[in-house]
Design brief:
Elements: H1 5-12, E1 25-28, H2 34-41, E2 45-48, E3 58-62, E4 65-69, E5 74-77, E6 83-86, H3 88-94
Antiparallel strand pairs: 1-5, 2-3, 3-4, 5-6
Amino acid sequence: MSFDDLETRLIFQPKGFCKPNQTPRYLLYSKENWKEVKAFCNPFSIERTKKDTTKGRAVIDLPTGNTAFEYGMILVRLGATRILVCTAKEFDELFYIP
């Protein structure tokens, strides 16, 4: 069995610290930026729900499953296939804005 470089590094260092290859982009979802949110989430399917329309409830269909979010939540783009949806408090715990 042949291992590539990443597999070899993970075998010899199965835990530790890592840094992203790309700087994550983020977007705060608000009443005024639906078109920008749709563009940010592209190519994933996204739609507003009929439930909790005053809160701006929306659902995005990600490879990991559907994720709901509403006004005031922050979307963080992690590579081409992942979007993290979090509250402002969660965002503050995970990231800082330089």
